[in-house]
Amino acid sequence: MTSAALWVGAPGSGGGRVVGPGWHHGPMNIVLFHSTYGLRPAVRQAADRLRAAGHEVWTPDLFDGRTFDTVEDGRALNEELGREELLKRAVLAAAPYSERGLVYAGFSLGAAVAQTLALGDKNARGLLLLHGTSDIAATASVDDLPVQLHVAEPDPFEPDDWLSAWYLQMRKAGADVEVYRYAGAGHLYTDPGLPDYDEEAAEATWQVALGFLETL
What we know:
Helix content: 25-40%
Strand content: 15-25%
Number of strands: 7
Number of helices: 6
Low-confidence stretches: 9-24
Strand order of the largest sheet: 1-7-6-5-4-2-3
């Protein structure tokens, strides 16, 4: 049985805080980036779920319509494009909506992209990370940016030491961070079309994520 554990405070520290509502409630403008598998049906389904909750959602296709059945094939295209080109495409996709105050979100590779954009956007309203993180520039600085991460436990792509360091760096940058771990789930456990899928963990993730969006 999959269960979620929440870090609020540094992992293992015993510290914590009360998670309260933000200053505004209402529909969010969300840009949702796909994983290294491309813009799969699961991404569109996730966007539809967010829209059903009243949010405006855009799902940029960073791979020009290409999707993949294996992570190896997706990584090959990612390496062919290169990080700079991938981020350029993401920035151009988000730019028309950034003045509205975006919530950046993404799956795995898309989460890493979302994090990079959110930390560089002074208008960002929030950051929702599913299955992935990215490195953080030493100069990164945000003003209490709400951040929520959902990740498997264990996750070979997001090891514990990395996540602990990531958490501390995000806090140092000024982010307000929650981390949810899902014991026994696969890496991309929210995608019904992949072997990683875990229905219980996926449903728990979306319930918590939708609640998070309501507080922004």
